[in-house]
LysR family transcriptional regulator (Cupriavidus basilensis), 302 residues
Amino acid sequence: MRKLPPLRSLQAFEAAARLGSFKAAAAELHVTPTAISHQIRLLEETCGHRLFQRHPRPPVLTGAGARLYPALRDGFDALVGAVEGMAESGAPIPLRVTSPNAFASRWLVPRLPQWRERYPDIALEIIGTDAILDLRSGEADVAIRYARTMPTGFVVREICRDTFFPICSPALLVKDGHTIERASDLLRFPLIHFDWMTRDPQAPTWRQWLATAGLIDPSLKAADKTWALSFREEMHAIDAVVAGQGVAICSDVVVSHELRSGTLVKAHPLSLPGYGFYLVAMARNVRQADVEAFATWIGAMD
């Protein structure tokens, strides 16, 4: 059983922190300022930390209070949103799934008809974002995380791992009219780069691929080659590749649909290891049954 502080103490603290005044908090909660002060002192005793500097006035959050306030604010906002959502129309509340943009667009969305066929009564809301949404504060019900190692602190299942290859449109190769026999042959084509918002020195970029390829192809002298096209977003780089504008180092998972259909091909067999796609959820989730259904479904997808 969770050991939580009294709800009145949490409400008093959240209101006082948000409004910057014990008096304003008292007016909002229809109690006296003395009652607000009393409830906050109870919370401070429970936490073992002072949450407000009371003098000089107005009260100011301490470091401990500043850390606690965002969690309470987001928690109360999530509760209000959940209740309002249930009361709006009686419509089923969608299971909110957050996913990296490129994975959502290229891998997940094309497979959603199979989800609707199997689970017609469970609506989904796909939140495509490369930001890490906070499951604890209720920003999403389940997350697909892309990481080199398994995330901790949650219930986690590995969906798959990817590998990165030089990928291009077959039309680009036909237009060139020559076969690619060595890694250095790729330098005849525009190289398309996209930003990795990570400090991982082993991220599968063109620079990393060229350095690796140079070990097996001594004629390759282009580790510092300037990219013909560079994009901030991975999806835009893939769009450029599909349009036949060049070659990019792409995830075989993210572009699996295009590889199967023949829209894209592997320009060279040399690959770089990628990361894992992980399904992440809270251990105790009010949507547990729906999360389990989604986990089972996505685990069975290829």
In short: The chain has a mean pLDDT of 89. The radius of gyration is 26 Å. Residues 209 and 215 are 10 Å apart (CA to CA).
